[in-house]
Design goal:
The complex is a heterodimer of chains A (478) and B (351). Chain A has helices at 12-20, 32-35, 59-72, 124-131, 150-156, 163-166, 169-172, 200-204, 238-250, 263-273, 293-309, 321-332, 334-341, 357-371, 399-416, 435-438, 441-454, 469-477; strands spanning 28-29, 52-54, 76-79, 96-99, 106-110, 115-118, 136-137, 173-179, 185-189, 213-220, 222-223, 227-235, 257-262, 283-291, 314-317, 344-347, 375-380, 388-392. Chain A is an alpha+beta fold and 478 residues long. Chain A folds into five domains: 12-99, Uridine Diphospho-n-acetylenolpyruvylglucosamine Reductase, domain 2 (2-Layer Sandwich), CATH 3.30.43.10; 106-223, 2-Layer Sandwich (Uridine Diphospho-n-acetylenolpyruvylglucosamine Reductase, domain 3); 227-271 and 283-332, Alpha-Beta Plaits; 342-416, Alpha-Beta Plaits; 435-477, no CATH class. Chain A has a seven-stranded antiparallel sheet, sandwiched between helices. Chain A has a five-stranded antiparallel sheet with strand order 5-6-10-8-9. Chain A has a four-stranded mixed sheet with strand order 1-2-4-3. In chain A, a hairpin with a 7-residue loop joins β17 and β18. With 351 residues, chain B is of the alpha+beta class. Helices cover 27% and strands 25% of the residues of chain B. Chain B has a five-stranded antiparallel sheet. In chain B, strands 11-12-10-13 form a four-stranded antiparallel sheet. In chain B, strands 15-16-14-17 form a four-stranded antiparallel sheet, covered by helices on one side. In chain B, β3 (49-53) and β4 form a beta hairpin. Classes of the chains: A alpha+beta (478), B alpha+beta (351). At the A-B interface, β9, α8, α9, α11 and α17 of A face β7, α6, β9, α7 and α8 of B.
Chain lengths: 478, 351
């Protein structure tokens, strides 16, 4: 697939020669076999060989590369660790794939202020690891946190299990260094908590590399809670579990994480890692509480009470760290576990108001019958972020298309109950058509005007995130 | 009540006549930013709750709704707006609060109003009524135009509706107070705040450090024992006077600066000139001095200095910006407000 359009307008050999004047020979990759690992991100149904892969090692090198590309009108696609799930880092055939993996240093940790200044190629988890000796951690924890980079997290506004209590990437980043398409360096945000003028940090976070190249990130670190326990509860009805989620939050308790799995996911996970899940249940909830000892005691007592009221089949509270990790193990391995029961799966990412959980899950189950494709649900119930995994077999002709159509229908369903098409994976190339379900033409035109303002030649990650006016017309007419 | 169509007409007329609009909520934040210019566009009548789902912890209100009204509505469900924005004698509106992104003492732990925003409806410079964001906690479709409005002071459009995440009201609060110098207080605040104690305020004022804890009564009682000082079970008055800028430090200041910086930044200038809030990340300075002198002492990297009172007529009161930053801001302004009719000069003399 080549959703980004034009081909063959860039003289890559000449560009490579220019780049090698200031970047080490081995960091300007033009040979096909060496470019191959970069042809897709975590959404591998979309593949495209990049014109060149370039790996800078400093903000200054990024600035020079971008400036050169701006002059020659060469598209630039920025890539972090390539774990994205919406094709946001899909290369451009005529462009430079700017891999920021060498910008991988933690520049500073100020434990007293609770701040870390890092380069974009640093992995999410390594920030928490480096902060741990100070009793601190970086809260957003996407499930790819071992591998994914903070730069990619910024591009996608990544979430994770703990964002219910601690917020998304946008809530945990205070300052960014950005290289503009013209190759100028701008610092947005600040180390204090107030910055005058429009919130440019918020604009950059989640902009999928389309408004600038982030070369430095300052994040907030939080004290590691002294206590943490997880409650594992199983239910006979999805509906009871869904209502229990709303009831806990209505009770005034904000769990650190609040996850739900349906019967397909429970069984797949249990077969895979043996976490001790109740495999006869229709739904399983994992509710993590953290804070001071007294805080956690209070939370466990109240949440347990709610689960009892909503007729839980079984309720188990982790009694030690090993047990807590075991309870989580099933959830954390749910995606690969589902991968074992189906040749392929397609992971959706719609968000809905919590009160619609039961209704939407019921409708997904009905659609599953209609399309003849199984669905496993594993998701962030606390913030209504669904991850239906549509199971299919790519080797069967037409199944991928069927899975995509099913997925699109799920997203329309999410929008119709007041939700949105993507909670944390981003639009990328995958959900461009669904942007029309979410936004009016005037709204899309406004988003495009913002893109034009900061990137008039559409060089930064072109063809992603926001459908152009032309594509909108094509989608509307089909 | 004003209708959206009327507001859109006002924008069209302003564009046609090339007469800028001065968008006004409750006119309560004149100390912030530069003087208003243009024809007044009063938003305060555009008020009321559009939708409130207590079990979702989400409320949507029209932008002219006052913060005090919002607080009362939420209180009935035992919920609060995180970050405690000031009410300013009942005049502050939700739209104005988001436009200025103004927060109270709990901001470092609970976030500012920007952090609570889930979506907005707004009228752009083409008089189109648009919706960005939504009503759900997580939404990464499209650029984050709703949070971009935070701090924009109305220069990028007219906010008509704001959807906010709210939180359960903490069961109780407790304040620990002790006498201490500003420099030592800064160290103490940062030390306390790097532990997992349930802190919801840390402020040094007039020789005293106040630390507030919030949560279930049993939880904060245990936590208070870990902090040096006198335990004051009911000290909400101090925190609300701080939030409303009604402490003598504020009411007596002819010259007032707000310095936003890394909380561990060295203390400078005499103690009596300062009120230190947000665990050291926001420091109010009541002193007659000029920006250059302040910048020399504070430094520039990552630091924001705002002048609230004592500025010369027409002077810029927010930090100088680099050419590249200005260019970015001006282009954004043009993308949302091509004719430049929204609050020109309110934020910067050049925008």
């Amino acid at each position: 697939m080549n959703p980004t359009g034009k081909t063959g307008t860039t003289d890559t050999a000449a560009l490579a020669a220019r780049l090698r004047e200031f970047i080490g020979e081995q960091y300007v990759v033009s040979a096909a076999e060496s470019k191959r690992p970069f042809e897709c991100d975590g959404l591998s149904v979309y593949k495209q060989m990049p014109g060149l892969v370039v790996m800078p090692s400093s903000t200054e090198e990024v600035r020079q590369i971008v400036r050169l590309c701006y002059r020659d009108k060469v598209p630039v696609v920025v890539r972090g660790a390539g774990t994205g799930l919406s094709g946001g880092a899909l290369p451009n055939p005529d462009g430079v794939l700017l891999s920021l993996s060498r910008l991988s240093r933690i520049l500073e940790i100020d434990p007293d202020a609770g701040l870390a200044r890092v380069q974009p190629g640093v992995t999410n988890l390594s920030i928490s690891e480096a902060s741990a000796p100070h009793g601190l951690f970086y809260a957003p924890d996407p499930s790819s946190q071992i591998a994914c980079s903070i730069g990619g997290n910024v591009a996608e506004n990544a979430g994770g299990v703990h964002c219910l209590k601690y917020g998304l990437t946008v809530h945990n980043v205070v300052q960014l260094t950005v290289v503009t398409v013209e190759g100028e360096v701008v610092t947005v945000g600040g180390e204090g908590l107030a910055s005058a003028g429009p919130d440019l940090v918020a604009l950059m976070v989640g902009s999928e590399g389309m408004l600038g190249v982030v070369t430095e990130v300052t994040v907030r670190l939080l004290p590691v809670p002294s206590h943490c326990q997880v409650i594992l509860a199983s239910f006979d009805e999805l509906e009871h579990a869904g209502d229990a989620v709303s009831a806990v939050i209505a009770e005034g308790i904000i769990p650190a994480g609040f996850e739900m799995m349906d019967s397909h996911a429970i069984r797949a996970a249990e077969d895979y890692v043996g976490a001790g899940y109740d495999t006869d249940a229709k739904a399983l909830l994992l509710c993590e509480l953290d804070g001071t000892e007294e805080d956690v005691r209070y939370g466990v007592e109240h949440v347990t009470g709610v689960f009892q009221r909503y007729s839980a089949r079984s309720i188990r509270v982790s009694q030690n760290e090993a047990e807590r990790l075991l309870f989580w193990k099933g959830r954390k391995s749910a995606f690969p576990a589902v991968g074992r029961i189906s040749p392929d799966y397609y992971c959706m990412d719609g968000t809905i108001p919590r009160r619609s959980l039961s209704r939407v899950l019921g409708e997904i189950s009905r659609l599953s019958g209609e399309y003849g494709l199984r669905v496993a649900n594993v998701f962030h119930a606390g913030d209504g972020n669904l991850h239906p995994l549509i199971l299919f077999d790519e080797s069967q002709p037409g199944e991928l298309e069927k899975a995509e159509a099913f997925g699109a229908e799920i997203l329309r369903l999410c929008v119709s109950v007041g939700g949105c098409i993507t909670g944390e994976h981003g639009v990328g190339v995958e959900k461009l058509a669904q942007m029309l379900d979410q936004f009016s033409d005037a709204e899309l035109a406004q988003l495009n005007a913002i893109k034009d303002a900061l990137d008039p030649d559409a060089l930064l990650n072109p063809g992603k995130g926001v459908p152009t006016l032309k594509r909108c017309q094509e989608y509307r007419s089909t | 009540m004003t209708a959206i169509a009327d507001l859109q007409d006002r924008v069209r007329a302003a564009v046609d006549a090339e007469r800028p609009l001065c968008i006004a909520g409750g006119n309560s934040k004149r100390d912030f930013g530069r003087e208003q210019q243009g024809d007044q566009l009063a938003m305060s009548a555009w008020s009321g709750v559009v939708d409130y789902q207590p079990s979702e912890l989400v409320i949507t209100v029209r932008s002219g709704t006052t913060i005090s009204e919002l607080r009362q509505i939420l209180a009935e469900e035992n919920q609060v707006l995180a970050g405690e924005p000031p009410e300013f004698a009942g005049n502050a509106t939700v739209g104005g609060t988001l436009a200025c992104n103004l927060s109270g003492p709990s901001r470092p732990w609970y976030g500012s109003i920007r952090d609570q925003v889930l979506g907005v409806r707004m009228i752009n410079g083409k008089a189109e009524h648009l919706r960005f964001g939504g009503q759900v906690m997580k939404n990464v479709a499209g650029y984050d135009v709703s949070r971009l409005q935070a701090g924009a002071m109305g220069t990028l459009g007219i906010l008509t509706e704001v959807t906010l995440k709210v939180i359960p009201k903490p069961e109780a609060t407790i304040t620990v107070r002790r006498t201490i110098g500003a420099g030592d207080a800064l160290q103490a605040m940062n030390r306390i705040c790097s532990t997992p104690l349930p802190v919801s305020g840390a402020c040094w004022n007039a020789g005293e450090l106040h630390v507030r804890l919030a949560g279930p009564a049993s939880v904060i009682a245990a936590a208070a024992d870990e902090i040096d000082g006198d335990i004051l079970p009911d000290e909400d008055g101090f925190w609300s006077r701080l939030r409303e800028m009604e402490l003598p430090f504020f009411t007596e200041a002819d010259d007032l600066w707000c310095v936003s910086l890394r909380s561990t930044h060295d203390h400078f200038m005499p103690d009596e000139n300062w009120l230190i809030d947000w665990r050291g990340a926001r420091r109010w300075l009541a002193a007659s001095c000029d920006r250059d002198t302040l910048v020399r002492q504070a430094g520039e990297e990552g630091i924001e200095i705002w002048q609230l009172r004592g500025a010369e007529q027409g002077a810029d009161v927010f930090p100088e910006r680099s050419d590249a930053y200005r260019k970015m801001l001006l282009r954004l302004k043009r993308a949302l407000d091509p004719a430049g009719v929204f609050n020109p000069g309110r934020l910067y003399s050049w925008m």
